[in-house]
Design brief:
alpha+beta; 17 strands; 7 helices
Length: 309
């Protein structure tokens, strides 16, 4: 009787393909995991939000038909929809070629993604065998916003302003989503951050940003230009690799002359046991950045179906 009931309920539900990928890595169980529904047309906003709650990942991506671009994408956290995100874009782009949903006769494959913030191009580069090797997303021209008192921010982490790189501001930067960018002197400082959540929440609420991206100019690999962490006041696991914030960090590095460019190799997630690596390319000059390109790989880890009423 129980099995008959389960069969009946399953027949009443519609199934949607769901694919899990780890982004900004070529190794399974590293980088940032993302669930992608490659054919999500027909799902309501409420169903998308419920699916994102079910996957319980930092973002779940929904691929839809678009009248403006090659595809439309919508990204949901377990709590809300977000207008733009980096690692779901890398995961989705790699998946589209893997699933042969895009023609891939030559490299790179270029497709426009329609986001809530507008339409931006994504490139998928193929290896000599024709398999997708790397995706590169274009982010918006960076906007450099308010400078924040470094002492106020560092107090949220039990640190003081002397831990920041000398003469470098703590500044809000956006390439689609705003982040507060904070450069610290060493990896040791980055490792030992302790968040005072009430104080941190009060500061971020006042600044109207959701997170701080703290970074240093060193990495676990000798050829890395920077290593970062995404810090929020919300309970839950820390994001292993944040493509949208990495674009902001790369813009900050170029604008303030911290590294010569135009391409930076960046790390995130190593301190969480999920090492991720990507690249940031600055288009234009340091004082007139036209756009930012963030690149990385993604590897599939799971494939199946989601059932929705």
């Amino acid at each position: 009787m129980s099995n008959e009931g389960n069969t009946y309920r399953k027949e009443k539900m519609k199934q949607y393909r769901i694919i899990y990928l780890d982004a900004f890595t070529s190794e399974p169980f590293c980088g940032n995991p993302c669930a992608v529904l490659p054919q999500a047309d027909g799902l309501s906003d409420r169903q998308m939000q419920m699916i994102a709650m079910e996957t319980n990942l930092s973002e779940t991506a929904f691929v839809l038909r678009s009248e403006k671009a090659g595809v439309k994408v919508r990204y949901f956290t377990p709590r809300m929809e977000v207008p733009f995100a980096g690692h779901p874009t890398i995961a989705t782009a790699m998946m589209l070629v893997q699933e042969e949903m895009l023609p891939s006769a030559q490299s790179p494959v270029v497709i426009d993604f329609e986001y809530t913030i507008g339409v931006l191009p994504v490139e998928i580069h193929l290896d000599p065998t024709g398999k997708p090797a790397k995706a590169i997303m274009t982010q918006q021209k960076p906007l450099f916003g308010s400078v924040v008192d470094g002492e106020d921010l560092m107090a949220c982490f039990g640190l003081d302003q002397s831990n920041l790189i000398d003469r470098m501001p703590v500044q809000i930067v956006s390439t689609g989503v705003p982040f507060l960018i904070a450069p610290v002197k060493t990896m040791a400082i980055l490792k030992h951050v302790q968040v005072n959540r009430p104080l941190f929440q009060s500061l971020l609420t006042r600044l109207e940003v959701s997170a701080v991206y703290m970074f240093c100019l060193e990495g676990f690999e000798q050829d890395s230009d920077a290593h970062g962490r995404l810090l929020t006041f919300a309970e839950g696991p820390e994001d292993p690799f944040t493509g949208s914030a990495v674009g902001c960090m790369g813009s900050y590095i170029a604008y303030h002359g911290l590294r010569t460019g135009p391409i930076y190799k960046v790390e995130q997630g190593h301190l969480l046991g999920r090492p991720g690596t990507g690249t940031v390319e600055i288009i234009g000059s340091a004082d007139n950045i036209e756009s930012v390109r963030v690149g990385g790989c993604a590897v599939r880890t799971m494939d199946g179906f989601m059932y929705c009423q």
